Hints:
Layout: H1 6-9, H2 12-19, H3 45-61, H4 66-73, H5 77-85
Helix pairs in contact: 4-5
Amino acid sequence: MRYVNANEILPDGLIKELQKYVQAGYIYVPAKADRHRAWGELSGYREELSNRNRRIVSEYEQGRSVEELADRYCLSVYAIRKIIYQK
């Protein structure tokens, strides 16, 4: 999420009303329920992690050890086990 200057997107009247409550601060405006996206969906990072995790499981099934996978992917042994055993 990036910050946007209110002057760039909001009408002057709304900015003046907001300034009654907040001066030079940050306000989080949540998405409407029907437009909410899960973590990582917009950036593609969720899909990237899913692909990585599938590779880890596949390599484990092909005989790589948990320790080898931890070294290869720069993760802890515990993290690799979580990925392998999650169902």
